């Protein structure tokens, strides 16, 4: 539940409002693909009764994904301009 809230908050701050539902759908699609591909990779990489090699592959892919994410995040910035009268322009004292 917490991950869903973080995803929605991230999408709402980074993506224009008229495209937020498509962005949440894309994030859900990638998450569901991971849920399908992960067990398949563990099953294929398992040799005999030892399934640890599959989990090593998944761990390495998570580290590589994190490194790719860290290098790509700084390159894509979306500018969201606040409209007049919106709550983003209000300053509370």
List the helices and strands and how they pair.
Blueprint: H1 2-14, H2 20-45, H3 52-73
Helix pairs in contact: 1-2, 2-3
Structure description:
The chain is mainly alpha-helical and 93 residues long. Helices cover 66% and strands 0% of the residues. It has helices spanning 2-14, 20-45, 52-73.
Question: Helical element count?
Answer: 3
Structural class: mainly alpha
Task: State the total count of DSSP E strands.
Answer: 0
Radius of gyration: 19 Å
Extract low-pLDDT stretches. 89-93
What is the overall shape?
Answer: elongated
Q: Beta-strand percentage?
A: under 5%
Please give the largest β-sheet.
none
Mean model confidence by pLDDT: 76
Order of helices and strands: HHH
Q: In percent, how helical is the residue content?
A: 55-70%
Note the gap between the termini.
33 Å
Which descriptors apply to this entry?
93 residues; mainly alpha; 3 helices
Task: Offer a concise description of the structure.
The chain has 93 residues and is an all-alpha fold. It is 66% helix and 0% strand. α1 (2-14) crosses α2 (20-45) and α2 (20-45) packs antiparallel against α3 (52-73).
């Amino acid at each position: 539940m917490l991950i869903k809230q973080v995803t929605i908050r991230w999408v709402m701050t980074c993506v224009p409002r008229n495209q937020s539902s498509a962005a949440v759908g894309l994030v859900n699609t990638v998450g569901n693909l991971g849920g399908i591909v992960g067990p398949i990779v563990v099953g294929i990489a398992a040799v005999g009764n030892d399934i640890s090699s599959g989990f090593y592959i998944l761990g390495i892919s998570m580290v590589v994904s994190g490194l790719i994410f860290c290098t790509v995040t700084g390159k894509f910035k979306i500018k969201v301009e606040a409209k007049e009268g919106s709550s983003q322009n209000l300053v509370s004292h």
